[in-house]
């Protein structure tokens, strides 16, 4: 464990550096997700309740005080199918499926974008939604490596987004393959 700087300094983009990371979680035995001060790994019961399923091919971290979550899902694809389905197609399909499921929660699509995650080119989209009267902003990024498709979710309350986005970006930028 590495000691970090004071918790309040994490609200500023220039404050997120590798020395702020106090731990890391590992996804699928191959992806390291930095866990800055204030974040804790989510257990499977909490992940099940957040995603309303029992898919255990995922890990997540959260900062409950600042209302941020980072979660990485993975799926080992059939080698032939993984050659046919690229990250952009999977991202587009994920957005359509999410839009249908979250239509009653004020789902609003914002934009598609490209982003490098763990050295891999990813395809993502940003959207907002409401849950129990609270607005959230989420980015979802799909990236592939070999026969594994990864889907990265980041969430923050929209009202706190200005302070949280640099922290979430720092986590995503610091993710790496082991």
How does the SSE layout of this entry go?
Blueprint: E1 21-27, E2 31-36, E3 40-41, H1 44-51, E4 58-63, E5 68-76, H2 79-84, H3 87-101, E6 108-117, E7 120-131, E8 134-145, E9 148-157, H4 161-174, E10 176-177
Antiparallel strand pairs: 1-2, 2-10, 3-4, 4-5, 5-9, 6-7, 7-8, 8-9
What is the name of the CATH superfamily?
A: Mog1/PsbP, alpha/beta/alpha sandwich
Task: Choose one word for the global shape.
Answer: globular
- Roughly how much helix do the residues carry, as a percent range? 10-25%
Strand element count: 10
Rg of Cα set: 16 Å
Distance between the termini: 17 Å
Which percent band covers the strand fraction?
Answer: 35-45%
Count of discrete structural domains: 1
Q: What is the C-level CATH assignment? A: Alpha Beta
SSE class: alpha+beta
CATH topology: Protein Transport Mog1p, Chain A
The CATH architecture is: 3-Layer(aba) Sandwich
With strands numbered from the N-terminus, the spatial order across the biggest sheet is: 3-4-5-9-8-7-6
């Amino acid at each position: 464990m590495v000691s970090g700087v004071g918790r309040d300094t994490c609200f500023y983009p220039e404050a997120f550096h590798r020395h702020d990371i106090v731990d890391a979680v590992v996804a699928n035995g191959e992806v390291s997700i930095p866990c800055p001060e204030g974040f804790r790994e989510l257990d499977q019961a909490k992940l099940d309740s957040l995603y309303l399923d029992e898919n255990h091919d995922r890990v997540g971290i959260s900062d409950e005080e600042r209302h941020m979550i980072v979660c990485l899902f993975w799926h080992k694809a059939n080698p032939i199918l993984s050659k046919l389905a690229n990250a952009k197609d999977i991202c587009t399909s994920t957005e359509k499926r999410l839009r249908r499921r979250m239509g009653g929660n004020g789902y609003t699509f914002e934009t598609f974008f490209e982003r490098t995650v763990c050295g891999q080119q990813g395809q993502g989209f940003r959207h907002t939604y409401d849950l129990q009267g609270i607005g959230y902003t989420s980015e979802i990024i799909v990236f592939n490596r070999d026969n594994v498709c990864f889907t990265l979710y980041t969430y923050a309350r929209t009202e706190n987004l200005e302070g949280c986005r640099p922290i979430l970006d720092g986590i995503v930028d610091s993710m790496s393959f082991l």
